[in-house]
Amino acid sequence: MRPAPDFSLSDQHDVRHSLGDYAGKWLVLYFYPKDDTPGCTTEACNFRDARDVIAQLGNAEVVGVSKDSVSSHKKFLDKYHLNFTLLSDPEHTVIEAYDSWKPKRFMGHDYIGTQRNTFIISPEGKIAKEYIGVDPQTHVIQIINDLKALQHAA
Q1: Residues carrying an active site annotation
Q2: Rounded distance, CA 26 to CA 50, Å?
Q3: Rounded-to-integer distance, Cα 18 and Cα 20, Å
Q4: For a Cys staple, 5 with which of 14, 29, 97, 149, CB 3.0–4.6 Å?
């Protein structure tokens, strides 16, 4: 396992969070393209609905990251009653550090944006599992199953 890149970003309440804040816990750090869009809303609501189950697995936390602003995150969180932290990375430095800033194509247009990726980070701050280009419909089930397996192996 390789060390997870450190971060220091503001959440939906403009409070700073860093990797060290989650030491001793499992962290599900997921990167998504844009607040309040269909796939991102599906993924966020699935994490919301499974948060209690995830939390029971090694006191795990869920944290979402996109380049949207703090105020956008607050609106998204309030609209869908999200029960976890969203971090704002407008300069996409953390998104890039986790190799999630990639060329994309949408409706015939090429651009660079956030790839939907997730990382399970161990209580020791190491990347235990990574998921690249996830399906927002089924991804949470993968996370729960893998957290169970990682806990069993620990």
Answers
A1: 40
A2: 15
A3: 5
A4: 97
Domain 9-153, classified CATH 3.40.30.10, yes or no? yes
Domain layout of the chain by residue ranges? 9-153
In sequence order, which residues have a C-beta less than 8 Å from that of residue 41 and are 6 or more positions away? 80
Phi and psi (nearest 5°) for 30? -120, 140
Tokens standing for residue 102: 């990639």
Which two structure tokens, joined as six digits, stand for 72?
């956008």
Which ranges in the chain belong to alpha helices (H)?
Answer: 38-56, 70-80, 93-97, 139-153
Which tens digits make up the pLDDT trace of 15-25? 999 999 999 99
DSSP 29-45: EEE-S-TTSHHHHHHHH
